[in-house]
Specification:
With 294 residues, the protein is an alpha/beta fold. The chain is built from 12 helices and 10 strands. An 8-stranded parallel barrel has the order 3-4-5-6-7-8-9-10, surrounded by 7 helices. Strand 8, helix 9 and strand 9 form a beta-alpha-beta unit. The protein is globular and about 75 Å long. Bound molecules: 3-methyl-2-oxobutanoic acid.
Length: 294
């Protein structure tokens, strides 16, 4: 089935594009054609359906599941089982988007065999089309996964699974030495076979340079406007996150207020007896048609 989406064309104007189910080849074509694209996180079937219907080409079942949904303060505690469970839910809600499943902390770092087994489960049980892993400590795993047909999205800059090593959720690559290392990491991931690379929390100029250096697309989060694509955590975009929001987050809605208002209205109508009214109640002798409906 063909769908339409809007993206900035090569000359900078907003264009409508036709597209089919998103594949790795298509994501790479986006870069060659200068088409910027959006990726969003999704953790459940309902959200996946809405994002897919809105034309988002890539849904990332991020390990931010730990923070956005499960109430943890870092991404470290989320298990492979939980990631597979939520990836499968996203797959059930999705029709056209490419689903990328994040490999959680300690599901790929031990050995290449462990990475292959975890990634295989994300595809077979979770229904993901690709996996994402952080950093360059598992380059051999990236090579092996791509050689057996599992597309890999890389992730450099701030890699939240290393939060304790880097001393917090901080901008990376501000010194020349760090910037050179991050450039080398991104290139190493491309060489190992990654089909795209997430750049997180980097100075815009560095992200621009990496985007120029790589032939595969970069997808930025807190990495400025020059990346090939941009990703946000869906809860942040929808205004569902409480407390501190990083500078790179732009909330496009305030669903927290919408939800609070709706549940308060419900509770007050329950208290007053206004809900349920006859139109939301059953009688003992309904019309046959109405009786069939719940
Ligand atoms: O886990 C995640 O949601 C991510 C994105 C923030 C890129 O890795």
């Amino acid at each position: 089935m063909f769908r339409t989406t809007h993206a900035l064309g090569p000359t900078g104007q907003l264009k409508e594009y036709w597209y089919q189910m998103t594949t790795v080849l298509e994501i790479q074509r986006f870069k060659r054609e200068g088409r910027r694209f959006a990726m969003l996180t999704a953790y459940d079937a309902t959200t996946a359906r809405l994002l897919d219907q809105a034309g988002i080409p890539i849904l990332l079942v991020g390990d931010t599941l730990a923070m956005a949904v499960l109430g943890h303060s870092t991404t470290l505690p989320v298990t492979l089982e939980a990631m597979i469970h939520h990836t499968a839910a996203v797959a059930r809600g999705n029709t056209n988007a490419m689903i990328v499943g994040d490999l959680p902390f300690m599901s790929y770092q031990i050995s290449t065999e462990q990475a292959v087994e975890s990634a295989g489960r994300m595809l077979k049980e979770g229904g993901a089309h690709a996996v994402k892993l952080e950093g360059t400590h598992s380059l051999e795993a990236v090579e092996r996964l791509t050689s057996i047909g599992i597309p890999v999205m890389g992730h450099v800059g701030l890699t939240p699974q290393s939060v304790h090593q880097v001393g917090g959720f901080k901008v990376q690559g501000r010194s020349e030495l760090d910037a050179d290392q991050i450039k080398a990491d991104a290139l190493a991931l491309e060489r190992a076979g990654a089909f795209s690379v997430v750049l997180e929390a980097l100075p815009s100029g560095l992200a621009q340079e990496i985007t120029r250096l790589l032939t595969v697309p970069t997808i930025g989060i807190g990495a400025g406007p020059h990346c090939d694509g941009q990703v946000l955590v869906i809860n942040d975009l929808l205004g569902l996150t409480s407390g501190h929001l990083p500078r790179f987050v732009k909330p496009y809605a305030d669903l927290s207020s919408v939800i609070t208002r709706a549940v308060q209205d419900f509770a007050s109508e329950v208290a007053s007896g206004e809900f349920p009214d006859p139109s939301h109640s059953y009688t003992s002798s309904p019309s046959p048609k109405k009786d069939a409906e719940t």
